[in-house]
Amino acid sequence: MRPFSYVSAPDVATAVHAISTEPNAKFLGGGTNLVDLMREHIERPDTIIDITRLPLTEIEELPGGGVRIGALVRNSRLAADLLIRTRYPLLSRAILTGASAQLRNMATVGGNLLQRTRCLYFYDGAAACNKREPGSGCDALGGFNRNHAILGASDSCIAVHPSDMCVALAALDAVVEVESVRGIRRIPLVEFHRLPGDAPHVETALATDELITAVELPASSVAANSRYRKVRDRASYAFALVSVAAALEVQDGTVTAVRLALGGVAAKPWRAHEAERVLLGAPATEESFRRAAAAELAPAVGLPQNTFKIELAQRAIVATLRQLLTDGSAA
Ligand code: SF4
């Protein structure tokens, strides 16, 4: 690991001031991804700003029924929180499908938002990778691409975002609060992560001097009937081939509210707007679910090793909605 300077920040103002004066600095929260990346010389910060003592560890109910989650809340605590488990069960379930218990105990909400792709070539210093070294090429295009993107990819990068938690947040219309010396701004989760285009190394809307301070969830009655389904190569500690975060409300046999997002298919958590459009006001039937899934995946493009994900994603959407229909009827 390269030598670096270490600064411990006692409060948010000190943290954002420190990063404003040191362009090649990184915040250290749980460190579950950053430290690995530093060991592999992929991240090479000159300064580490330790933010683990900042007062960003609360889960608070907001007036109106939403919830504010501090950026340093550990993933395991968020998944276990009673408010989250009852009002947003898909978020709790998504987190519990990710990583291992030990990693969830360390990883923070803010860090989860910023975790980087698990593309094998990104971690291989001998491979061409536009995300790691802009302009160097992309060895995944002609290489092992079974886990890669089927939506929103480009000729520069076909990596997928690895988070489960963020897929649930995308379905829940979460908003990310960030702070810098210029002040506070709020970024909708669906606009926080970027598709690769011709600059895959720019992964988020976060400026280099901004700190994630919180994630807010709006009140949502539909979220009470929600699920997260993750399809992966083995039962635990594996990233999603495809995942579905969904919430469904049905009245008199008609879909009256629906939220749907996909993971494992794109460089960002993929909010399934087209499927939602097809479903809203439609009969809550298997046929409607299939039509919605087909509409969402219509623009998908398969690679030699991952075309199966197009069908898999559609089946996962239909199966999740079918389960929610059963759950909702039983409630
Ligand atoms: Fe790098 Fe993206 Fe290509 Fe993977 S898919 S090698 S992360 S440019």
TrEMBL record:
Record-linked Pfam families: CO_deh_flav_C, FAD_binding_5
Keywords linked to the UniProt accession: Oxidoreductase
EC number: 1.17.1.4
Coiled coil: none
Matching InterPro entries: CO_DH_flav_C, CO_DH_flav_C_dom_sf, Diverse_Substr_Oxidored, FAD-bd_PCMH, FAD-bd_PCMH-like_sf, FAD-bd_PCMH_sub1, FAD-bd_PCMH_sub2, Mopterin_DH_FAD-bd
UniProt key word Oxidoreductase: yes
Highest taxon, organism lineage: Bacteria
Keyword Oxidoreductase: yes
Stretches assigned to the FAD-binding PCMH-type domain: 1-222
GO MF: xanthine dehydrogenase activity
PANTHER family assigned to the protein according to its UniProt record, in alphabetical order: OXIDOREDUCTASE (PTHR42659:SF1), XANTHINE DEHYDROGENASE SUBUNIT C-RELATED (PTHR42659)
Stated name of the protein: Xanthine dehydrogenase YagS FAD-binding subunit
Record organism: Streptosporangium lutulentum
